[in-house]
Amino acid sequence: MSRANYNDLLEAGVHFGHLTRKWNPAMAPYIFMEKNGIHIIDLNKTVAKLDEACEALKQIAKSGKKIMFVATKKQAKDVVANTVKNINMPYVTERWPGGMLTNFATIRKAIKKMGTIDRMATDGTWENINKKERLLISREREKLEKTLGSVSDLSRLPAALFIVDISKEHIAVAEARRLNIPTFAIVDTNSNPNIVDYAIPANDDAAKSVQVIMESVVKAIQEGLSERKVDKDKDDESADKDQAELTAVAETVASEDGERKGKRTRKS
Description:
Blueprint (H helix, E strand, L loop, with lengths): L5 H6 L4 E4 L11 E5 L2 E4 L1 H20 L4 E4 L3 H11 L6 E2 L11 H17 L10 H18 L11 E5 L5 H9 L4 E5 L10 E4 L5 H61 L1
C-alpha cells in the first residue's frame, strides 16, 4: 500500500511545477504535461518515488542513525521544523553554514561553545564578568543558537540528508556528495534530479505541498524508530532470559558442589 494518497497530493498542489521556460530537461521523465505555460508533474511518479524514499529512510532510522533535514526557504522552513521536532532529528532551517558537513569538527567546536556559555551561568563565572562582556557573550550565544541550536545533539555526521529545493540548497547537496552521504530531496521541475540519490518529483514552493510530503516522510521514520525500540526490547528480554538461565545453572552447580563436599566430609 502506498504511503501517500494520490488525491491528497493533488489537493495539496504537489503536481504544479515551474514555468516551462525554467525547466530542467533532466526532469522530463517526471513531467506529465504542459498547461498554461506551466509543467505538470506526474503524481503517479511522485507516489512511486516517495514510497521508495520513505522505505529507505525508515531503514536508516531503524538502524539508529540520524537524518538531517535542510530547508531554508521561507515556504518550507516552518513546516520542516515543526514536523521534524516530533522525531528528534537534526534540521537546518536558517542559513546553511558552509562546511557544516565537510568541516564538521569546527561546527562541533561551535556547538560545544554554546554549552560552555550555558555553564558560565551556573558555575559562577557569569557573576565575575562585566556587563559589556555579558552582553557580547549573550549575543554570541543567540547567534549560535539560531544557526546551530537545531543540530546541537548531533555528535557525528548524519547518515543521510533530506533536502527541500536542491537548487537553493546546492551547497548542502555538494557537501553531502563529497562525503558520500545519501541524499533525499523534493525536486521541482527547475532542478536536476540526478544529483541526489532519492529524488521526489514535487512542488517545492508551496507550503501545503511540502507539508504533505513531510508527513509521509516523518511517518516512515517514526515506523523505523518504533521497530528499533521493539527489537531493542526483544534483545533486552532475551539477554535477561539468558542471564537468568546462566544464574540458575550456576546455582545448580554450586548446590551440587556443596552436596559433594558434604558427603566427603561425613565419610572422613
